[in-house]
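[Automated response] Your request has been received and processed.

Submitted sequence:
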Amino acid sequence: MRTILPAKFLRNAPKDAPAVRIGLVSAGVGYGLFAARNLTKDEFIFHEAPLMTALFNEKFSADASLMHSQHQAYKAALADGGQDVVTLAFPLLAARNGFPPASWRDAEPIFSAESAEPDVTGSMKRFFGKNLVHGRFTGSTITKEEYETYVAGVREMLIARPTEEDRQKACLDFFKHYAFQVKRTATVPATSNIPHLPSPPPPVPVPISPTTTAATTNTLTPVSTTATQPPAKTNSDACIYLLGSLINHCCTHPQSSSAYVTRKRVERGPNCEWRIGASGLAHFVKPKHICVQAKRDIKEGEQLTWDYGKREKGFVCECATCRDTFMGYYCGVL
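Generated structure:
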């Protein structure tokens, strides 16, 4: 029997108040999200709908159906009218798909916009807060010098004429590092029923291999293929969020380690956590939507971080926790 809690016990949705702004952590790390006001422990900061939804597998192996769905999800996000903000938010993925970084002149108005202009056609699609349900995006702290230094490195990764294989490999790498696993709560849908994916074209007698079709222009036309149905065992989606996926990793303090000695007696470790879909007392979170919650008090201007939970062997970490050790770069010595 399901227990219905009284309304007084249910948590409130995030305030429709300034929540986050975007900043540049470093040329190596890229963007990050920063608190736009003082936040209190356990406060919900923002609630956001997904930007891209694709198939998921634990190891993100180079499966044809998986790679196709990821590439389709990216093209759908671009074709939805949000090409400017999507390529600006994820410039390395854009470069590997043949899109050069935007100039500062084009980027600055998108970074600094604190709301969509109601009288300007398409302004919502060029707005970093376009998928927010609760909480407000409040612009950027990025300077022209910081941005141009950052995109100089991105331009080195630009592929002028990417093949279909190049594009799909770029999307595979991107989803591996930026996507969230989202459990499905109902029957596994066909790819055409997954939100933010375009409807696939009718099947053709002979499937087109995704690794043999070369693309010489940045077309947003879906690729014809019959490999659109997810494997029967698939019970999760991989979701990308325009703001949520920009929150950087921070290592959790090891409970006991002779290698870990802090230089300063300051509070370190991730300051946020996330939940996707309604859970616990957060009844307001919609399916596939992400809600970001403060684990402790966060001061205005402090970077929002959480622990990604996985480490790659030899990974050199630049998070605040690792920088605060005498040995430095904790992940790199695991």
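Summary generated for your ticket: Confidence is low (pLDDT under 50) at residues 1-10, 187-232, 256-263. The first strand starts at residue 18 and ends at 26.
If you did not submit this request, please reply to this message.
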